[in-house]
Amino acid sequence: MLKVENVVKYYGDFLAVDDLSFAVERGEIFGLLGVNGSGKTTTFRMIMGLLDYQAGDITLDGRKIDYSVTDKIGFLTEERSLLTKLTVEQQCIFYGVLKGMSEKKIRERAPMLLKKFGIAEYWQRPIKELSKGNQQKIQFITAILNDPELLILDEPFAGLDPLNVEIFKKEILEMASRGCMIIFSTHRMEHVELFCKKIVVIQDGREVLGGEIAKIKENYGLKNVFVNGENIKKKDLETIDGVVSVTKNGDDWEVKIKDISYLDNVFASIKDQRIYKFLLQQPTLNEIFVAKVGEKYGE
Length: 299
Known about the structure:
By secondary structure, the chain is an alpha/beta fold. Helix content is 34%, strand content 29%. The protein folds into two domains: 2-216, Rossmann fold (3-Layer(aba) Sandwich), CATH 3.40.50; 221-281, YebC, transcriptional regulation domain (Alpha-Beta Plaits, 2-Layer Sandwich). The strands form three sheets. A six-stranded mixed sheet has the order 6-7-8-3-9-10. Strands 2-1-4-5 form a four-stranded antiparallel sheet, covered by helices on one side.
């Protein structure tokens, strides 16, 4: 298990991470979310042992993370960190050796992964000649080359088309099924909902939302009701007690209510019309995220 316990990090007088705590179990894909500048990258670097912190503790399976432990960690950064003048072979050997792998083991595992990702023919190709999507594949392969026990993924699907996103998704889920602890970070909330059961959202280095996604949605006050029928008018829906907003969503009216106790009010107001749809949906994670972090998400 990875444990981040009450960690505090300053850069001079600037408080970058403020009393942050979370834990990631084996086989779990955990979402660490926040806008740019929220403290995610600093947290990743502390977990990797690249930055010291002023208070708290970070441990992997009960051990403080040092260079012997970091060999068990893989990290896919948001920014490309490939040495583009190297060939794919040279890049894999360089990163593998940094992670304590023998060159023999690297030459066994890397071609297998390249084949799995559909780029086996690029083994001797300079990285600068590859497309952005294939460079992202190489970056991912070098992050998992050491078959890590903990994998940190920061925007792993950047630059990928839908078919390659599916290849990445399959590998991530396979690694989790083998017991790998995975921290997943992205601004694409639909990807978070696909992978993660638990999340922490940080802003200005401090947790503003955390826990199981299902519970977060359940406890979030606003609910969405989708209504479709004859002679249903926006101005009539807006006057219903408990309705916060009414917007057009395709052929439906999306009616946002304060909480589920106001659902009967909406139904009572339209029950005499011919109704084709009356559907209550939980708010999306993206909606909750924006509500919690405010305008900074859109900057």
